[in-house]
Design brief:
The chain is of the alpha+beta class and about 550 residues long. The chain is about 40% helix and about 15% strand. It has three domains: about 170 residues, no CATH class; about 80 residues, Muramoyl-pentapeptide Carboxypeptidase, domain 1, CATH 1.10.101; about 160 residues, L,D-transpeptidase catalytic domain-like (Beta Barrel). The strands form four sheets. It has an eight-stranded mixed beta barrel. Strands 8-11-9-10 form a four-stranded antiparallel beta sheet. The radius of gyration is 29 Å and the shape is globular. The N terminus is likely disordered.
Length: about 550
């Protein structure tokens, strides 16, 4: 009996990584069943979730159906041993009656699989901290065992499972997009690459041997919607289809088919489906912030959006281009924090890393740079050191900065690196949103140029959103404070959540958009998920009874 107790409980124990084990009832369930087995077999079957009188209940059949459909959420049914459990349940329904120990093993295996499934659906399969993303965990109670027991009792298993997934419109839109791209996987239109472009590019009006194939792909992807026949040249509606395709892939929609657009047109639907699966996984990480307003920056899209939640509906109030951290050097970290301050006409305290690697070497070569940039020295006591300018700049002062005994600060003004406003959400990386004296960079389609902080294209619009609950801060007053040239810090009446996210796939106004994986985060997440699947599948019980022992 002790061996049966241990083997039965082992079906549950490896189900979920420690970072998500929150079911306080789980050890009790396992122990209770074990004690019942040891004392009285019929009592054990009475305590099971999925069986009644030695046969699976309707809930058990619903459960295996749900596990089979895990792919709709970007999950993998094999991670939950869906096929093996389906066979065991089907046999238990139609075959000979199973022994008590067999019933218990199937019941515990199904509980383990469902527990893992709803936990994955709620929190995601990988701890985002493993990949450097520091998002706050949800504070609400989530007890998988209690949820399952209640769902079965109330005959609401399917509804309960749906309720644990992210309640965001974007989640459902991504599911629909995933289903579409899976339908395209293996389509003959992608069996071979498009014919090579003449001279490496294709401009409107030129001939191209691959017009028909290009037309078909654009139609299947939804970028070309027409009953007309393909033209003889690259012109007219097919050019417009390419423009739409380019826009959906974060490119300048100029209609010229160059090497970059050509390469993206040859990406197989299966690869795009995987991107959508990763996007769904990341949405499960995203903290649910019970706040009426939130600012979200999507790093690979180079966009900021500000949302307001009203009567349960999410409404986008403003959107703007952003510049993020440079790939490979100073990437913008992924996290969430609360915005608490707005600084008008801010000082820029040059970070020590930038001072040592860039500012100090420049000042040693060109002392006049100190005055041109409006720099000043600040001592360790926070006081400005007077009497130092480009004419009196000496090695001792620069060496003090190098050692961290002094710092360099840039005064407010037109050339200030932060522009004329700064949005502060305290965090360990000292990342913030700010304007910039070089707005021409927003014209680029790829915008990873910063040292990690995030430059915003429309600071006045963002300030209006941030200060929407302070009517005394009109647009005119905001602009006046930005241009005043005197640093002023305003504490917000209520903290405003800011989420720095990383989604390379998104749905906007019914269209699916894909963005470049600039920080190689998709590759890391894909590898982590594959490794996790291998570990989970190796823990599947090998002794789920598929047929009666009699």
């Amino acid at each position: 009996m002790l061996r049966l107790l241990m083997s039965s409980c082992s079906l549950l124990l490896p189900a979920t990584p420690a970072w998500r084990c929150r079911g306080r009832y789980f050890p009790a369930i396992c122990l209770t069943i074990g004690l019942m087995i040891a004392s009285h077999g019929s009592s054990a079957t009475e305590a099971l979730l999925w069986f009644s009188t030695e046969r699976p209940t309707l809930a058990a059949q619903q459960a295996v159906d749900l596990l089979d459909s895990a792919a709709a959420d970007g999950l993998d049914a094999q991670d939950y041993n869906a096929e093996g459990l389906r066979k065991a349940i089907d046999n238990a329904i139609s075959g000979m009656a199973l022994a008590t120990d067999q019933v218990i093993r199937i019941d515990l295996a199904l509980t383990s699989a469902m527990r893992r499934y709803i936990t994955d659906l709620h929190f995601g399969r990988v701890d985002p901290r493993q990949l450097g993303a520091n998002y706050r965990q949800a504070t609400g109670a989530f007890d998988a065992d209690l949820l399952l027991a209640s769902a079965i009792t109330d005959d609401r298993l399917a509804q309960t499972v749906r309720s644990v997934a992210p309640a965001l419109p974007q989640y459902g839109s991504l599911q629909e997009a995933l289903a579409h791209y899976r339908e395209l996987t293996g389509h003959p239109a992608w069996q071979q690459d498009l014919p090579a472009l003449p001279n490496g590019h294709l401009k409107p009006g030129e001939k191209y041997a691959g017009i028909a194939a290009l037309w078909q792909r654009l139609e299947l992807l939804g970028d070309l919607r027409t009953d007309a026949a393909p033209p003889g040249r690259y012109e007219g509606i097919i050019v417009e289809g390419v423009r739409i395709f380019q826009e959906r892939h974060g490119m300048v929609p100029n209609g010229v088919l160059g090497k970059d657009t050509f390469a993206l047109l040859n990406v197989p639907p299966a690869s795009r489906a995987r991107q959508l699966e990763l996007a769904l996984e990341r949405l499960r990480w995203t903290p649910f912030l019970p706040a009426p307003r939130v600012v979200v920056v999507n790093v690979p899209e180079f966009m900021l959006r500000a949302y307001q939640v009203r009567d349960g509906r999410i409404e986008m109030k403003t959107a703007m281009k952003v510049i993020v951290g440079t790939t490979g050097k100073t990437p913008t970290p992924l996290f969430d924090a609360d915005m608490r301050f707005v600084e008008f006409s801010p000082y820029w305290n040059v970070p020590p890393s930038i001072a040592r690697s860039e500012t100090l070497p420049r000042l040693r070569r060109d002392p006049g740079y100190f005055d041109r940039q409006g720099f000043e020295f600040v001592g360790s006591d926070g006081r400005v050191i007077v009497g130092l300018d480009s004419t009196s700049l000496d090695s001792a002062s620069l060496d003090a900065v190098q050692r961290g005994q002094m710092r360099i600060r840039q005064k407010p003004g037109a050339g200030n690196a932060l522009g004329d406003i700064k949005f502060v959400f305290p965090n360990k990386d000292n990342i913030y949103l700010h304007h910039t004296p070089t707005p021409q960079l927003f014209k680029r389609d790829r915008r990873d140029f910063s040292h990690g902080c995030i430059r915003v294209e429309a600071p006045v619009e963002l300030a209006k959103f941030v200060l929407a609950d302070a009517p005394e801060w009109s647009e005119a007053r905001i602009v006046q404070a930005m241009r005043k040239g005197k640093s002023t810090t305003l504490r917000l009446q209520e903290a405003l959540p800011v989420v720095i996210a990383y989604h390379t796939a998104a749905v906007r106004d019914g269209r699916v958009y894909f963005f470049p994986d600039i920080y190689r985060q998709d590759s890391l997440l894909d590898a982590a998920l594959r490794q996790r699947s291998l570990a989970v599948r190796s823990s599947h019980p090998a002794n789920i009874p598929a047929e009666s022992a009699y």
